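does this look right to u?? heme C version
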Amino acid sequence: MAKTEIDAATGVPTTGHEWDGVKELDNPLPKWWVMTYFVTIAVSIVYVFLYPSFPTGTGYLKGSLGHTERISVEQRLGEARAAQSQWLDQLTAVSLEEIPANAELLTFARQGGQAAFNTNCAGCHGVGGGGQLGKYPVLADDDWIWGGDLEAIHTTISYGIRSDHDEARVSEMPAFGADEILSAEEIDAMADFVLAMAQGSADFGSDAGVSYLENCAACHGEQGEGIADLGGPKLNDFVWLYGDSKEAIVAQISRPQQGVMPAFGPRLDEATVRMLSVYVHSLGGGQ
Ligand code: HEC
Ligand code: HEC
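got this back:
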């Protein structure tokens, strides 16, 4: 055994290890470090007695406080549900028009409506109601096919459009081309007329204009202003469901798309349908 060697420069003993003449001093660990080390051991022992810790063969050490994460999660969920059901009850207790008058209720409905919209509607109408040109209408503008007040939106969501619901909104634009009501030339001229109408320069005295009043005005209005009760979209503006190209318009007149929107009344509860109505109404163009 080598006897303890004291380093001459510092007066500290060395560990006896030596690498190429470099020796290691045997300084003690700092006191604060040693204290912290023992405190953590003490705390962990106390913790084992109080809280759930080690697994045993058939279960785990439960600790004397009886703490479990599951109970506290259930408790918090229960509290959240109770707070929500108060709002949900209120949503269905008042009339649809009264909801916006109550600022807190309105906020609750909008937030709930947004969540329900992202789940049920965004697949077709896009997040935020941006729509998909050529297929699904924009819901974030003030151009409405079936009406944009709360009541009309509520009806659309509840019963759907051309859905299998008995009270679905239905309006069948005739297939003027496929059913040979108009010839290909007449449809071509009609498409030009519709485009002119969108620009405010339609000649209602032309052949196409006369044919428009005869064949189309009943659903789209004498001036192309749209008839919400019949689901006839406005044609005298530049907001299009199916596209602003002449091709898209010829296609629609020849063989209408007859877009289908499912009925959500049978799938969602009334409170959710109301939240959705409020949310859609608030997207930008509510009437
Ligand atoms: C499968 C696709 C689809 C889904 C899902 C869908 N919609 Fe629609 N929605 C449509 C189509 C297509 C139309 C336009 C039909 C038409 O009139 O030609 C429409 C029209 C509407 C309108 C009427 C717009 C207007 O201008 O009058 C509203 C409001 C509406 N949807 C809301 C919703 C809400 C809210 C949801 C979710 C609960 C939803 N939609 C889910 C396809 C869908
Ligand atoms: C019975 C009612 C009805 C009649 C009559 C009718 N339409 Fe329509 N039209 C609709 C409906 C409903 C839609 C939208 C729904 C769909 O097809 O999905 C529509 C959509 C359109 C669109 C697409 C609008 C857009 O925003 O993209 C055009 C264009 C159009 N019609 C032109 C005509 C023309 C031109 C005529 C006459 C030759 C006509 N319609 C006659 C009901 C009608």
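The pocket of heme C (ligand 2) is lined by residues 171-174, 176, 190, 194, 215-216, 218-220, 230-233, 235, 240-242, 249, 252-253, 256-259 (CB under 6 Å). idk if thats expected tbh
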